[in-house]
Amino acid sequence: MEPPFLYDLAVIGGGVNGAAIARDAAGRGLSVLLLERGDLAQGTSSASTKLIHGGLRYLEHREFALVREALREREVLWRIAPHIVWPMRFVLPLVKDGRPAWMLRAGLWLYDHIGGREALPPATRVDLTGEMGLRERIRSGFEYSDCWVDDARLVVLLARDAADRGAEVVTRCEVTRLAREGSGWRIETGGPNGGEPFRAAMVVNAAGPQVGGVLDRAHEAKPRLLRRVRGSHIVVPRLHDDPRALFLQLPDGRICFAIPYEHRFTLIGTTDSEEGADADPPRASDAEIAYLCDAAARYFRHAPTPADVVWSYAGVRLLADDGSGKPEAATRGYQFDLDRGPDAHSAPLLTVLGGKITTHRTLAEAALERLGIEANAGWTATAPLPGGDFKPDGLDEADNVLPIEQEIAAIVRNLPPGAAHRLARAYGTEVLRFARAEMGRDLGHGLTEAELDHLVTREWAMTAQDVLWRRSKLGLRFDRLQADGLAERLGALA
Length: 494
Known about the structure:
Layout: E1 7-12, H1 16-27, E2 32-35, E3 51-52, H2 64-80, E4 85-93, H3 101-113, E5 124-127, E6 140-149, H4 151-164, E7 168-170, E8 175-181, E9 184-189, E10 198-205, H5 211-217, E11 226-237, E12 245-249, E13 255-261, E14 265-269, H6 286-297, E15 311-320, E16 334-339, E17 349-354, H7 360-370, H8 404-411, H9 419-427, H10 449-459, H11 464-471, H12 480-493
Parallel strand pairs: 1-2, 1-10, 2-7, 4-12, 10-17
Antiparallel strand pairs: 3-6, 4-6, 5-6, 8-9, 9-10, 11-14, 11-15, 12-13, 13-14, 16-17
Helix pairs in contact: 1-4, 1-7, 8-9
C-alpha cells in the first residue's frame, strides 16, 4: 500500500519566494510543509537593496510587463505590510555623462502611469543646489516615488502567516534526497524528523541559487537556461541627512542607489557580477567595494573610501538566461520549470527561476496556477501580514511615525530613545503580543528578554546572527562582547 501523504505541498527554500508560496497555498486550504536548510531569509532574500520598486532601469531593457507588474505590487504590499514597507522618495540627479533630461522625464512619466499609482506622489523636477551633500556641479534632477522594505522581516512574516494558517515551517533542515514514491514524493532530510522522511503530493523547488542542488538530489535534469549573478552592497557612515534616497547614474551605463539606512548609515548598491557567484556564502569582493565607493565619490562632496565601509554583504540571484550579454541586463522576471514525471499519475516538481522581492506575491500566485491550484486565488492581495492590520494612510510621512508607537510608549516603562519606533517598525501591532510594563533585562541597545523570547518562539530565531542581522537589524550596533552574551542567552533558551 502506498504510504499516506502528510502534505499536499512541500516547498523547499525559505527565502521570499518559498515563504510566499507556502503562505498562499496554506491560505487556500492546502496542507503545506516549508523546509529551509538554514535560517529564513539567510541567503539572497536578506541581501537585497531592500526596495519595493518597479525597477526604473528595466524600462531601458524594454521589460515593460515586468515593470508594470512590479509597480502594481508596490501599493499592494504597502497596504498589507505598512509597518515594514513604507514610501520613499528617490532623487535622480542630472549629470553630464548620464542620460539626457528628456529621456529621464519620459521614463518617469511612463513609470508614473503604467502601474496604477494611486497614493504615492508623482515624479517632479527638483533643485539640488547645495542639497543632499552633493557636489557643487550637481544642481538639478528629478524626484520620484518607490518603497523601502525590511527584506528579511518580510520573509519571516510570510512564513509566520503561513504557519498561522496551518503550514509547518521547519528551519535548519536540509533536503538530502528527493524521490518519487507512488504518486507522491518522499523527502529525506538531515533535520529534526527522527529519520522519518516527509511525504508530499507536490514539491516546489524554491531554493534560489541552490535549485540545481535540489534537482541533483531528485535526480532530475536542470533547466538549461540558468544564470547566477552576484549583487554586492556596502554600508558607510551617513553621507547626508536628507530622508530621500539617490539614484546614481554611472559612466559605464550602470546605476546604483545610495539609501538612508538605520538612521546613522548609507546603504550603497548594487553591483552585478557573474565572477565568484558560486561562492557559499557569497561575499563582496575588494573590486566591488572599490567600485561602489567610486560611484559615491562621483556624487558626494565627502566621498567614502573602502576604509569607511562598516559592513558589506552580497547575494546571488539565480536568473533565467535571456541571452543578454551583461549581467545587469539579465531579466529579473520569473519563470517556472514544471516536471510532471514519466506519466500522468506522477507527482509534479515545480522549480522557480528568477524573481524579485517586489513580485514575490504574484510569483506565488503564478506558481500555484502552474500546479493547477485555482481555488481562492488572489486572497493575498488584501490580507495583511502579521502586524500590518492598520491603514498605511495613518502614517506620518514626515518622520515615519506609526500609530502603534503611542500604544507601545504607554505600555512599556523606561523605553530608551527610539525603541518604540524600532519596535513599531519591526512588529506593527504584533508587538502587543509581548509588550508589557517590564520587558526584562536589556540585552543591548533596547533588545529585551521579552522581545528575544518572541523572536525565538514566534519567529524561528536560534542564533545571534538570526536575531541581530535578520530579525532586529541591530547587528551594526552590537559589539562582539554583547553579541557573545546574546549567543549565550540563546543557548540557555535552547
